[in-house]
Structures are given as structure tokens and as C-alpha cells.
Write a structure and sequence with these properties.
The protein has 211 residues and is of the alpha/beta class. It is built from six helices and nine strands; from the N terminus they run H-E-E-E-H-H-E-H-E-H-E-E-E-H-E. The chain is globular, with a radius of gyration of 18 Å.
Length: 211
Amino acid sequence: MMSRRSFAVLIGPVLGAMLGTLATVSAWAASVGQAAPPFTVTDTSGKQVSLADFKGKHVVLEWVNPGCPFVVKHYSSSNMQATQKDATAKGVVWLAVNSTATEHRDFLAPAAMTQWMQGQKAAANATLMDTDGKVGRAYGARTTPHMYIINPAGTLVYAGGIDDKPTANAADIPGAINHVKVALQETLAGKAVTTASTKPYGCSVKYASGA
């Protein structure tokens, strides 16, 4: 039988490496009140899209995975589309981001992702294919959906869930507080966002292993 001392010697370096990795992810993940991480990524049409392209505008980032029941909740009810349309009508840029790894069963190729978004009548300005997970990891995106709002100065002013009802039940939407709508109303009016950070909910982002 392995002694406690031997076990500690064996497992110590492993735990150290794990904690080091977590510290690195935490150190690099975007934080509300700080500059939003820059990125350049290809959208579903093959066009390169950079955050810098939208300097001086409000930008919403929405992490999406059509295979996730929580995403389906907000699209099948048209709640996500209504939130998108409300934002873009006010000049806000809305970028959907798909960080699903190519090897995962939920992965949709760009053409299929475009078809799905069009079938949902989504109002996002573009859908970004972050298959290597670099954008998602830079922002610390953990769930689909996971929502972020960036102000014209390039500062992250909101991060978290779309609303306060962490379920996959569309019947909960009418009684929910839509955090994204509220935060956009405040920041568009030049006010500080009252609830700038909430707990995201949904399916885990299906990142590529080792990315």
C-alpha cells in the first residue's frame, strides 16, 4: 500500500501543474472594467472579422452552439433574436461566436452554421468560427450562451448570462430579467452598468482538447 508521503510526492507535481494552468487561464480571461481582448477570426462566410473593426461602437458577443438545449431555449422562443434585433436597431454590433471544436459531435461547418442561423432568423451581424478556441479562452467563455458587452472605448462592461432564469425551459423567459437588454440600455445612455457581472448558465463550451 502506498504511504501518504509517497502519494503526496507523486500527486504534488500534478496538482501543481493543474493549479498553474488554472491560474494562467484566470490571469488571461477578460474582466469587466478592463479592455476587451482583441481578436481577428474568420466568420462563416470566410471573411476575417476583427474587434478593432468596430472601434467606437457597442459590441455584443454571444457564445452559441446549436446543439445545446439552453441555446435552443432562447432561439426556439425567439428570445435571442428579439434581443439581437433590439440591440442592432440601436446601432449595436452583435457577433455570435461558435467555439465548438471540429472533432465534437456538436460541430457545424461554416455553411451549416450559416444555414442554422438563417433558419432561426437570427439578427447577428456575423457568426464567428472560433474552432481553435482562442477567442473563447481569451474571454473566459464557459457556457452557451455566455454574453459579453463591450463599450465604444473597448472596455468590457458586462459579462454573464442572458437573463436570471438558469433553465432550459422556454416557459421561464417571460418572467426573466434580460440582463443583456438592461445592460445595453444603461451603457447606451452613458450610464454605468448596474449589474455588470452575472453567473452564466448553459452547456459547457466544447473547446478543442489541448487548445
